[in-house]
Amino acid sequence: MTTLLDVRGLTQHYRDAQGRTLYALEDVSFTLAEGEVLGIVGESGCGKSTLGRAVLRLTQPTAGQVFFQGDDILRLSRGAMRHRRRDMQIVFQDPFGALNPRHRVATLIGEPLTIHGLPGVAARVAELLDLVGLPPDCGRRYVHEFSGGQRQRIAIARALALAPKLLVADEPVSALDVSIQSQIINLIAALKRQMGLAMLFISHDLSVVRHVAARIAVMYLGRIVEIGPAAEVFDAPAHPYTRALLSAVPQPPGAARRERILLAGDLPDPTDPPPGCAFHGRCAYAMAVCSQTRPMLTARRMPGAAARAVACHLFEQA
Amino acid sequence: MTAPVLQVEGLTLEAGRAALVEEVSFAIAPGEMLALVGESGCGKSVTALAIMRLLAPGISRTAGRICIEGTDIATLDAEAMRRLRGNRVGMIFQEPMTSLNPVFTVGEQIAEVLRIHRDLSARAALARAAELLDLVGLPTPERQLARYPHQMSGGQRQRVMIAIALACEPRLLIADEPTTALDVTVQAQILALIDRLRRQRDMACLLITHDLSVVAEYCDRAAVMYAGRIVEAGPAGEVFSRPRHRYTHALVRTMPARNPPGEVLPAITGQVPPPGARGDGCSFAPRCDGRLTECASRPALAGASHDVACWNPVA
Q1: Cβ–Cβ < 8 Å for A206, A29
Q2: In this predicted complex, what is the ipTM?
């Protein structure tokens, strides 16, 4: 497999209104192969959306490197970056907020082609409408005439206009009803197969991520705490936070119940992250070392499982 | 069965000439949790608003009856209805931030309910507010009283909303998507809390939600709504483990967690018909793969304890 994206030590700090530093993303590293789907899961404020934006250089990361096909895109000139953007696109949760209500759908979908000065816009728009399962006459209509699911199809068509190699999908189905959600999940999966798209699939909905992603990264307070093959992370979560997170998901009707771990308290303040492991204050297995030393995210070979990286002192003795 | 706390009979709600909700009936006994479950626009939230008599202008009840503890709420004057809300009936909404007043402390907002409905002195109301915050699991309740909503997390704010809803020991709690805006670990905390409190207090509970897994796990009974009508109702576990209506069946089958990773989901094609365009037959028929000629006329909701409105139910 060829590496498409190699993220190293990506860090994003913000200043909040009081002038304090908000540690949105801390030292995040991972790779993504061509055509691979990496699921990014975690709760509000864990940094998953910040990660999606920082990887596309939609923010100015504080530190780190993002190698896209070997080039560190954080060091590219504006002109070179603009050219590179053709290969990387994003789809957001709320398709209505992402699409200009005053333009016709054909204009919205064709806009990336126009911006990059490519020919054959009309033909490509017709092709894209067909690709995402919208009737050809949709191009003449406006976004408000469409339902949420159809709007997300329009946003996806627009993101795919330039045939990108990487798609960041930030909660693409979270605003949709269950019956519409599965239509869009099927569409995304089909497009991935047809076009060999690599994806960062960001979602708080673990069952959706499990369905589409081959690998999964779990984030907590700006850091990846566990990353590995989806089946292993789901079936045998290692990090105590991953275990609590998975146990909290209500099981579908008829499925066996996991034993629920109810976490006490709330996420720590991201402007004042606790020393050591950020999760130690809520962790049932916390040891003295957990409040002093930050556990590194390192590859560990669990009994009966393939290599997986976990940032937890519990796995250090082995 | 003991007398129900809430009884809704043949409720029909219309906006202009379009019916939003049609012939909806259900009852909730003390200590029981019933879910009204369905997708956007199915009429579940507007049903909850009708129970509180908080319908937006332009929406009216054109048929049916709503009784709370045996009293038809249509017979109450505005003052009596005001006494009922927040007192006999508590409510929690999806977004606690917009339901709380940003310029008053949490303590003041809980105390306000107690002063209005219970005529408590300011000091007694604050003391009771601290007890309520303790009940809903907020640490150091005395200190929480002085905080403002924006100083709290989403989960803490929802706990405050529950404290306000429970302040007067209501007989009925209406929770409209109470955990939809919350993270999954916080959702588990809040649902466990509501579940414990309704059992302890023998309180009837109406949970409005789109999340089938939540219903199967926490509720005693479920009523599935589609396009303004209840299409299936029965014990929650049974409705979702052995769904009989083709819509419920398709909905359960399409859930990602019910399918092997990576496989094509058995999606439901098409869209929910909007109010006013629902026709005379079964509203789900155009999207249904078990459609028969009978489906052009409306099936009645029928059954012993597990009711279904379908001409060709799943065996």
Answers
A1: no
A2: 0.82
